[in-house]
Amino acid sequence: MCGIIAYKGKGNAASIALDGLKRLEYRGYDSWGIAISSDSRIGIYKHVGRVGNAEIPAAMAGKPARLAIAHTRWATHGGISEKNAHPHLDCSGKIALAHNGIVENYQELKKRLQSQNHKFASESDTEVIVHLVENYMNLGVKKAVQKAVSELKGRSAIVVLTSNGEIVAARKGSPLIVGYGDDEYFIASDIPAFLQHTSRVMYLDDNEMVSLEQEPRFYSMATGKEIRKRIVQIDWKVEAAEKGSYRHFLIKEIMEQKDTLWRAANQDEQKLVKVAEQINSAYGTFLVGCGTAGKVCMTGEYFFAKIAKKHVNYCVASEFPNYISFLTPKTLMIPVSQSGETADVLEAINAAKKRKVRIISLLNVFGSTMMRVSDDFFMVNAGIEKAVVSTKATTAQLSVLLLLAYASAGNLNEGKRLLLDTASAVNDMLNPRYEEHIRKLAEKLYEKEHIYIIGRSLNYPIALEASIKIQETSYIHAEGFAGGELKHGPIALISHDTPCIVLAANDESKDEIISNAMEVKARGAYIIGIAPDNNEVFDYWIKVPDAGNASPIVNIIPVQILAYHLAVLKGLDPDMPRNLAKSVTVK
Ligand code: F6R
Asked: pTM of the full predicted structure?
């Protein structure tokens, strides 16, 4: 949430920073801003709305500056306005600061700073940080940043630019990565911001600071001492972070599931078996995630129950504090997260680590905070996911959990075979004709106010996930239910022509879910069946491969495509839904 980029080098800093912001826009798109430092002055430009195709501001286009910081915002404190957009300035106008995170104690700090005559120009919590830095500037910018950050509560990443041409960044809970170009350096919240310039990176750890001098120098914020770090060469391809011939990232990423399932299946088998043994012998295993990843965790619980006859717990990360008293050093936690940066999950991990719980994460972003704080991890190998709406990471996470469940049952080979067959079937399924069939359905549905989704067994959590997909992209009220629950209340919502998607896998729950479909059809619902076989109850049938226990993977894909086309037909941006942002680094 919120994207930061800083640049120092031989290029046109404002233009490079603006380009970086465009590539970070998925992290927040309420407003944006750039600050440059040249001729001992800070120049600043802010704008409400998306970066989109913005051009470099006229005032910055003249003599190119060599240093810049920029920010794209997802508002937390203070409305969406120019004054609340970052970067923020201190009273002297000689220090600019951009921030990702929340200053939990900002009210107390603001009161204190106001009593010291600091003048505030915004309602943002961030502004306190720049005034704190100002307070300590007589100690030099590095010390000032160190002291300012030590007073902050909550998770933050900041970057500071001074009129003297200094750039210092600090990490306390939110991600920052340094990029090493050719005589040019970058600091950003995420690698795609500078990937077109360099793939040599250095990850900042918590409570570390970096100062862009002749070259980047790193410091511990605890001791102030310089530290040595290792440059990592990452193998991400620039094209992976571009739309290519697709209109939107979302449809590109949905279609990439032709490949990503193979890649997800390609796990170290010995590690799968070892982790499965740890699950089998653990005194409680918790699958923990948020949003879509939370629904993946819930599906994981069903995978383990059905395939391995093993009870594992799933928990929404923000609710994890309720389970803390059950944790022991024999407990295992499996956090599931695309970004590896989600604050609620990181908090749950912290709480678990305090009780010596072993942490084995399922991640998509290499080098992420979660990877660094986990005892071990699996990469789900979905590749860069830029659309805010998660798709290919979801099915990759489901794939790894499916493998783990089979490994836990002592049948890894069977699980692997199933997954490879499923990957091959998805490859065949994702063709233009299939997409068009679903687009036609979207034409029937895009003006509806409500869509319901039902599933049973392994597909109950997928009904919940399907509702998230439709809500996010189309803003249609969508709600998922366990098929058996309808008659206990929600069936009252069904009336003439109410769309109801029925996830009907070829498993032991099939007859019952078809009965549930009949019950809603009898009350006038328009039934969309997602199933390997057609059925007389379906008004519209979307065929999916018969994938056995991998049915959650194949069943969610048509809903992803539907969600995409609903957004397009409604004239909405499927990549950047309102009010959302990728990588939710605030609690
Ligand atoms: C929905 C979606 C979100 C994320 C959630 C967790 O499409 O993407 O619900 O799943 O914010 O994010 P990660 O997986 O990065 O922890």
From this structure: 0.93
